[in-house]
Design a protein that fits this description.
Helix content is 30%, strand content 26%. By secondary structure, the protein is of the alpha+beta class. It has two domains: 55 residues; 132 residues, Immunoglobulin-like. The strands form two sheets. Strands 6-3-2-1-9 form a five-stranded antiparallel β-sheet, with no helix packed on it. 24% of the residues are buried. It comes from Stephanodiscus triporus. This is Superoxide dismutase copper/zinc binding domain-containing protein.
């Protein structure tokens, strides 16, 4: 009986210390849970909100593009310069045209030489290529308008420029002639803007 009383009686000092040592361990899970709620849950919510925002946001505006192969000489031109390459016209949502060119066979070191969209829709007849194609008050297809290329010592030119012509959509430009000019303004090459393939 004494044994039973000893088992059920008051705890000895070492047993009390053992229980106290266990007390903090019972609190730790709550702290871990609090830490989890404070740090992990907001991170999960942030990831979900970011994902939904990306899905619901309007997609970046796309542009239409037309490309002109510049491998044909301008009708009637019989000089020594034989340009080749291509010009891409990207019609941006802000009603601007971004011109990108990659050309070879040009004059060496041609500075501020013209590259323009023209009124005509053919490269077969010089009389039908027409002048610069624009509807704004001031002709943008000029050096001042930035519609130029600069070639290197090898007669190569790669670059881009952006402008507003008043005819700034794909449908208003596709089918029109693009003309490359020499340093003195001679029309060297002609190509028709076509749908990008």
């Amino acid at each position: 009986m004494d044994d039973q009383e000893d088992n059920q009686g008051p705890m000895s000092a070492p047993e009390e210390e053992e229980v106290e040592d266990q007390m903090p361990m019972m609190i730790v899970p709550k702290k871990k849970r609090s830490l989890w709620v404070i740090i992990v849950v907001p991170m999960i919510i942030l990831v979900i909100v970011s994902f939904l925002a990306a899905r619901l946001m309007p997609q970046a505006a796309k542009y239409e593009e037309a490309v002109a192969s510049m491998n044909e000489r301008y009708p009637g031109y019989t000089g020594d310069i034989s340009p080749s390459g291509s010009v891409a016209a990207k019609f941006l949502p802000q009603r601007k045209i971004q011109f990108e060119y990659n050309l070879q066979g040009l004059e060496s070191n041609c500075v501020d030489c013209g590259i323009h969209i023209h009124e005509g829709t053919t490269c077969d007849d010089a009389d039908e290529v027409g002048g610069h194609y624009y509807s704004v008050e001031v002709d943008p297809w000029t050096t001042e308008g930035g519609a130029v290329y600069n070639s290197d010592v090898n007669g190569e030119a790669t670059g881009h420029f952006t402008l507003t012509s008043g005819y700034d959509t794909y449908n208003e430009n596709v089918g029109h002639a693009v003309v490359i000019h020499s340093q003195n303004g001679t029309r060297l090459s002609c190509g028709i803007l076509k749908a990008e393939t």
